[in-house]
Amino acid sequence: MLQKAGLAVFLATFVATASWAADGPFGIGMGSRLQTLKLEHDAPISSSGTVQVYAVIPPKPYYLFEGYLVDLTPKDGVCELTAIGQILADDPDGKKVRAMFENVKSGVTQTYGPAASVVDELESSSRLTQRQQFAESLYSHERTLSAKWELTGQAAQVKEIFLFASSPDSRNTKVFLSYEFENNDQCEAGKTVVGHNNQAAPVPAGDGAFGIGMGTKLKDLELRFEEPITRVDGLDAYAVAVPTPNAQFEDYIVKLTQQTGACQVVGFGNKQVNDLDGAKVSTVYFALKSALTKKYGSPSEIEEGLESYASLTARNQFAASLEKDQRELSSTWTFSDAASQYAQIWLYATSPDGRDTHVNLVYDFKNYNQCKGGKASGSDASGL
Q: What pLDDT does residue 380 have?
């Protein structure tokens, strides 16, 4: 558990001066403009309508958190801030994350008063009741450990604060701390879902396979090259320019057959050069994961960590461990509802050479199994 001295430092960071609340959490206030923020990357992690999500370095960071995201619009400035907690390794019984949760809750309470609601419960139907299954129950969404503050008239103009515990892999844990400012409703109004033929601002990757829908025919795609880059048993892969690109991706391919149309879309992330410790790709991965989770809910499966047999365990061997398949950094969303066009969405980090890294985002449509059983389409695509 975190020592009392650590808690004292944490509280001091949160409430050292009265101006902290006026400045906003971690020194970022409501309405802060993009040009006043220190960015992790120049490009947004995602965008939806006029709302953009950026990874930032706040003026007042705290060591328990490894990343910070802001939602903003050009008109309203910052309207939401999320702090991503450090991974608490090897925490099956949840002692570490409970201590972290209580410490952060105490710090927020010192500034904003008691939480309006605190939930600490295991679902009655859960079988994960053993002491050593705490992280596993978080991972399977059968346990909730959260606190919520509902505020009015605060100097920092914070409307709502949400703190919750999470587990990415049923063994490690972390906390998330999210602040919604009073202008968040205006931001939400700026989010739009752009249709396939709508030329409005790009939407995030999570809003529809970069603007390409299930069954889209070859003739309706903007091809970078006339010929497919691969062709296997009638399943062709084409490099395309997508209708709604995302700034975190540099290349896109669509897999299709003549009969089914598009059945898979893949976005290849920007190269993170000389990313030995994985800091760059981790920031992009967790930000995209957060954006996709907001759209589709929690992932069905998460694998984030070293394999038990891994030998590449040093801090600067993160990229090398990805290359050698000794580390996983991936999230998968699986869909069973008939209304969804997706069968699965898969986000993962990879390294081609043990030094540079990037993320890939794969959308499998519901017709993907028909695609894999497709027949050769021939080289003439003019009739598609």
A: 32
